[in-house]
Amino acid sequence: QVQLVESGGGLVQTGGSLRLSCAASRSLFSIDTIGWYRRTPGKARELVATISRRGFSNLPDSVKGRFTISRDTDKNTVYLQMNSLKPEDTATYYCKAETFDLDSWGQGTQVTVVS
Known about the structure:
The chain is mainly β.
């Protein structure tokens, strides 16, 4: 199992930026994929970004151009840089680690975007 700790959420105005961090308990090279997801009450969980063991990233069109996923393998940490934030980006953001036998989730961090 992988322990994940998210941080960096908060309250920001429309157009602002936040950087979320997801610190993993073990080497990122031992994890197949780390993804950022978000959930808003009443809505389905939404994939925001993923980064693979090899460092390849993928983002949906809804955030592409505004969000960037990156990592620091020395710190075992994955980042989600969020720019040009909109009220509809308001959600609880979670990171998930996928390995061959288990998925692990962090506790989530709240992002609130106000106009």
